[in-house]
UniProtKB/TrEMBL annotation:
<keyword id="KW-0597">Phosphoprotein</keyword>
<keyword id="KW-0472">Membrane</keyword>
<dbReference type="InterPro" id="IPR003661">
    <property type="entry name" value="HisK_dim/P_dom"/>
</dbReference>
<dbReference type="GO" id="GO:0000155">
    <property type="term" value="F:phosphorelay sensor kinase activity"/>
</dbReference>
<keyword id="KW-0808">Transferase</keyword>
<keyword id="KW-0067">ATP-binding</keyword>
<keyword id="KW-0902">Two-component regulatory system</keyword>
<dbReference type="InterPro" id="IPR005467">
    <property type="entry name" value="His_kinase_dom"/>
</dbReference>
<dbReference type="GO" id="GO:0005524">
    <property type="term" value="F:ATP binding"/>
</dbReference>
<feature type="transmembrane region" description="Helical">
    <location>
        <begin position="15"/>
        <end position="34"/>
    </location>
</feature>
<keyword id="KW-0547">Nucleotide-binding</keyword>
<dbReference type="Pfam" id="PF00512">
    <property type="entry name" value="HisKA"/>
</dbReference>
<dbReference type="InterPro" id="IPR004358">
    <property type="entry name" value="Sig_transdc_His_kin-like_C"/>
</dbReference>
<keyword id="KW-0418">Kinase</keyword>
<dbReference type="Pfam" id="PF02518">
    <property type="entry name" value="HATPase_c"/>
</dbReference>
<dbReference type="InterPro" id="IPR036890">
    <property type="entry name" value="HATPase_C_sf"/>
</dbReference>
<dbReference type="InterPro" id="IPR036097">
    <property type="entry name" value="HisK_dim/P_sf"/>
</dbReference>
Length: 579
């Protein structure tokens, strides 16, 4: 997988992961928030809210009710009891009714109506919830002992007369109500207050009729508990107000709770983002710091020290595999290795070329200095006493000066030729030529040369034309260099065999002689742009650039040249050209 795709995949799956993480956290936060809202609602409306939740969450199947064990546990802990009554009045489900022996197993219409109207059953305070979620209606009845209601009923039985408190009992009852911080109101059927006894702080609050109903439905929202008792004969209602020990007004309404929840949620996201950001910075920053060190070492030319031992331990494990934090950049690291290797090779090649150039210039200086010294020496001799030399001696001097001059001109010409060959295709005039005819003519030129009569040339070629795309002038020069080298560096008795033909999809030229051959060092430096023995005893004939020129011509044509040689076993030169 390419680095672009892998990085795209890497960041995509990270984005998906973070999105899922945020969604999960959001869901958890929402669940906790709604759970908190539900808990607050139940607390505010306890025990009415509990009954509503039980009715909503209950399961009814085949006449059987199922309620969460958590609700059953709460009912038992609070000392309450629960009954579920079917449409026929039968109790089909009950919780914690065993301690309450007076509870019936079925209810009549009159009992249910009385419970609905008075919100009491015997000595129990009762709340009901009618549920229509299933095929038939079910009535949930939640009852519990209410000490305030019991106290109110006891006072009613002890002090009631004609539906109100007896006048002689008022002082005693007023003292009891003040001691308990309570207040008693007696109202008539038209809701007029007939009597008010006890702590008058409740009177100052001036609860409205709807407030009284709200207190009964949601007692935890208020600091007051209310219980009532209706005297049916007189129509009077006794209402007892008592202090709510645990239910001060809610300090955190819904919006405040939502704001706090969002603040906690934002803080949680920030806490999660901090380590994730540090991890991202470490994961993506550490390789960049490593790369910066590489660039610094490369700037100093330390190509062989791209990865120090410490860097190697960072990037690779002991088994040689790349660590996960760097695996994302494996193409980059590989490219660094390749680039530094290439730069190191380039640096070595540059040093080699500089050394070769120095050796080349040294050799050229030597070969130019030698003939120039000869020419200069003969010039001094002729300039000082020309009359002392005979015509024959002067002819020899002139011939020597001419030979040395010709050699220097050939050397300069070869320098110019090498420069032209560096230009490549720009100086080549490629056309279709017959390689067989070109090689045959090149060999024939040496065969017909009277100065080469002591050398033996053999030609082996095909009868049919062998057509290739090449520059004829350069190939003629190539053949001249190869044949002249075979003659120049071998004794007169040498046999030079030249063959041309096709091998697979290549055209080949082979020049084989049985002469002196070459040693390993000479063979190794054969194609250097200047390599020729600098022994002053050797003939200065030739520039020493022949084989370098030959190789350049072959490579410019897209071919290959190979040389095999051993001392006193001859030399074989093979050239392969595309055809």
């Amino acid at each position: 997988m390419k680095i672009q795709r892998r990085m795209a995949f890497h960041f995509t799956y990270q984005l998906i992961f973070y999105a899922l993480l945020i969604v999960a956290i959001t869901l958890v936060a929402c669940i906790l928030f709604f759970q908190n809202m539900t808990s607050n609602e139940i607390r505010r409306n306890f025990p009415v809210g509990v009954l509503q939740q039980i009715a909503q969450e209950a399961h009814y199947k085949d006449g059987t009710i199922e309620i969460s064990p958590e609700w059953e546990k709460l009912i038992v802990e609070k000392g309450m009891w629960l009954q579920v009554v079917s449409a026929e009045g039968e109790v089909i489900y009950a919780v914690n009714t065993t301690p309450h022996h007076t509870l019936p197993t079925s209810y009549s219409i009159a009992q249910l109506l009385d419970i609905q109207e008075t919100r009491t059953f015997g000595t129990y305070a009762v709340h009901t919830q009618l549920n229509f979620s299933f095929q038939e209606p079910l009535l949930y009845v939640l009852g519990y002992q209410n000490p305030d209601l019991d106290q109110l009923v006891a006072w009613f039985g002890a002090y009631e007369q004609h539906g109100i408190v007896r006048s002689d009992a008022v002082p005693f009852l007023d003292q009891q109500l003040h001691e308990s911080g309570s207040y008693l109101q007696v109202i008539d059927p038209e809701s007029h207050i007939v009597q008010g006894i006890g702590d008058e702080a409740y009177v100052q609050k001036a609860y409205r009729p709807l407030d009284i109903l709200a207190i009964q439905q949601s007692p935890s929202n208020y600091d007051t508990n209310i219980v009532s008792h209706l005297d049916k004969p007189s129509g009077m209602t006794w209402i007892l107000y008592t202090s709510h020990a645990v239910g001060a007004p809610l300090k955190h309404p819904v919006m405040e709770s939502a704001t706090r929840g969002l603040a906690w949620f934002a803080g949680l996201i920030l806490l999660l983002a901090l380590p994730v950001s540090i991890w991202h910075g470490y994961r993506y920053g550490q390789p960049l710091i490593l790369f910066a060190g590489w660039f610094e070492r490369m700037r100093k030319g330390q190509y062989d020290q791209v990865l120090t031992a410490k860097d190697m331990r960072r990037v690779f494990r002991r088994n040689g595999t790349m660590r996960i934090s760097y695996r994302l950049y494996k193409e980059v690291i590989k490219s660094f290795y390749q680039m530094t290797h290439q730069l190191a090779q380039t640096e070595k090649e540059r040093e080699r070329l500089e050394k070769a150039q120095a050796e080349w210039m040294s050799g050229i200086s030597h070969d130019l200095r030698t003939p120039l010294a000869t020419i200069q020496g003969y010039g001094y001799m002729l300039e000082s006493l020309p009359e002392q030399w005979s015509h024959e001696e002067m002819r020899i001097m002139g011939a020597t000066i001419r030979e040395k001059g010709d050699y220097m001109l050939e050397l300069i010409s070869d320098f110019s030729l090498i420069h032209q060959l560096k230009q490549g295709d720009s100086i080549m005039k490629v056309r279709e030529i017959d390689l067989v005819e070109l090689v045959r003519c090149s060999v024939l030129k040496y065969v017909n040369d009277t100065m080469m009569s002591e050398y033996r040339f053999h030609y082996v070629g095909e009868e049919r034309p062998l057509l290739i795309q090449a520059d004829e002038t350069w190939l003629v020069r190539l053949m001249d260099n190869l044949l002249s080298n075979a003659v120049k560096h071998n004794p007169p008795s040498v046999i030079v065999t030249v063959s041309v033909g096709r091998m697979n999809d290549k055209a080949y030229i082979r020049v084989i002689d049985n002469g002196k051959g070459m040693d390993e060092e000479t063979l190794h430096h054969l194609f250097n742009r200047y390599y020729r023995g600098t022994n002053t005893e050797e003939s200065t004939e030739g520039s020493g650039l022949g084989m370098s020129i030959a190789k350049t011509i072959v490579e410019t044509h897209g071919g290959e040249i190979q040389v095999q040689s051993k001392v006193w076993q001859g030399t074989k030169i093979e050239i392969l050209l595309p055809c």
